[in-house]
Amino acid sequence: MAQAEAPAALLIEDVLVYDHDGDTDRPGAADILIAGQRILAVEAGLGRSARAHADHPLRAVVQQARVIPGAGRLALPGFMNAHYHSHDTLMKGAFEAIPLELWGLYALPPSYPRRSREELVARTLIGAIECLFSGITTVQDMDRIHPYDEGDMAAVLAAYDAVGIRCVFAPHFTEVNLLDATPFWRETIPASEQWRISGPAGPLFPPGEDIVARLVAALKPHRNKYARITFGLGPSAAERLKRSTLEKLAAASAAEDLPVYIHINESRAMALHGLLQLQDHGGSQVRYLHDCGLLGPRTSLAHSIWLTDEEIALIGQTGTNVALNPVGNLKTRSGVARFRSMIEAGINIGLGCDNCSCGDAQNMFQAMKMYCGLAAVSDPMPGPPHATDALRAACLGAARPAGLEGQVGHLRPGMLADLLLLDLDDPSFLPLNSVARQVVYTEGGRGVRTVIVDGRVVLEDGQPTTTDMGALARTVHALAKDLQRDARDVAARLDPIRENLLEAVRKSWEAPMPLHRHVGCSSIR
Asked: 282-308 burial string, b = 16+ CB within 10 Å, else e?
């Protein structure tokens, strides 16, 4: 695999520099000087001044820096993909829009045979590169390696290190049988057919294994090993784990300083499970996590669609983070989160692109546009989120739980050099009326020309510098044949109970709920 080594310094000259706290419509031009992994200076005319004056304090750095012309370019802080799963990057376009619970069975690793290590590496690389094409410089990957294997995880981490993207890696895991974690499955699927829910690879971990202890031990040799990879824990959802495991997670997170990434109330069925099974916790998955010790600044709640006023207030009061995924939530028929209410509650919001088989694209521009537009589902009157809110969420929101707050998200001296350059001569910016609004509402990713991560150019002239795309494409095409065959086998196993699964979905929609997050259920309160 080709490697693009970081030069001692980079100088981006005369580029428009986006500042969340500055003029977001028409940012000023400046030079960005990068030394090693960090931004050393952001100053108008820095390069010219340093060359012209022998006593300039940065003259030596500027003279040996590689110069990147910035005229006609916009520099943005790199985007952070707050919620993502690399395990199905080879399944993009495989499904039409179907309810979340069906999609999970047809698409996700537990339904499939164990994947080859070659496929694990290829799916990691292709997903990371797609992120870079969209200006994403940090990805939070809840990767499902099924069955779990330390060697497989090491191969995935090596792939991330080679491609050059920043990654917060959190192994994804479940524990409870889905028949017990999903409302109405046991009663709608005949007992003689319930075997179809289980895949051929067997359980994720051997029965009785202390999952938290094993994962914490498995992560230890890799912590501080890679410059751009940090770690977390990725429990699937509250209803898919035992309470004792959730409490162990809370203890391990505090003791090991590991963030926790977990799904919450993504679908109506998930919220309904809490309402039916968690009466001791007010029928609330959010309250249940709080009672298990899992709410707080180290925790990120993915999706967070079906939330009451009380749950939103609790998330805000505890400083818990939320990772919104508006594109995938539409395709899985899950609903629209209460964006404005979360902003008003002071919740730290990140934006994610989720799975490649439900959101289908690792494209932060799509996520930002949806974030702003879909707020009208809850409130049609003007108000947040605005384009500037979307850019903050995309650049800054995922930093806090990852322990990267103050390190990424701004183009300022001392920050890690994670950024992208957009082409202002692209039709998306002609004419230039508002940088923030045109980035969010007009740009779709076509204008991304350069991406820098950790001071290293990893995308140049729209092409990756660390990966042989031709060789990777050939590998992916070859591997896809086995995956597509296995997907047909999965469908053949599940299709006989498809109507039973849909009946469970219908029952979940018909059951009384104290709120609605979908136009189709407006009469069901």
From this structure: bbbbbbbbbbbbbbbebbbbbbbbbbb
User: How far, in Å, CA of 449 to CA of 446, rounded?
Assistant: 8
From the list 297, 289, 294, the residue with the least C-alpha distance to 252 is 294
- Indicate if the pLDDT at residue 4 is higher than 50: no
CB 481 within 8 A of CB 446: no
What is the pairing mode between strands 260-264 and 299-303?
parallel
CA-closest candidate to residue 277, choices 412, 182, 349, 200: 182
Please, what sign has the CA dihedral across residues 105, 231, 159, 414? positive
Does residue 189 have a pLDDT over 80? yes
Sequence-ordered list of residues with C-beta below 8 angstroms from that of 206, at least 6 positions apart, any chain? none
Say whether 433 sits in a helix, a strand or coil: coil
The pLDDT assigned to 2 comes to: 42
CA distances from residue 72 to 10, 443, 463 in whole angstroms, order as listed: 18, 15, 19
CA 434 – CA 4 distance, rounded (Å): 34
Quote the pTM value.
Answer: 0.95
Residues 36, 416: Cα–Cα separation, whole Å? 9
Beta strand residue intervals within 55-190, DSSP E: 66-69, 73-77, 79-84, 136-141, 166-169, 172-173
Q: What is the pLDDT of residues 202-231, one digit of tens each?
A: 999 999 899 999 999 999 999 999 999 999
**Measured distance CA(18)–CA(79) in Å, rounded:** 13
294, 246 contact by CB (below 8 A): yes
- CB-hemisphere CA count at 13 Å for 316? 16
- β-bridge partners, 17: 75
235 phi and psi angles, rounded to 5 deg: -60, 140
Which residue is listed with tokens 């590169």? 129
Half-sphere exposure of 189 (CA within 13 A, CB side): 23
Half-sphere exposure of 486 (CA within 13 A, CB side): 21
DSSP 8-state code for residue 405: B
Rounded to whole angstroms, how far apart are CA atoms 99 and 120? 26
So what's the pLDDT on residue 515?
Answer: 80
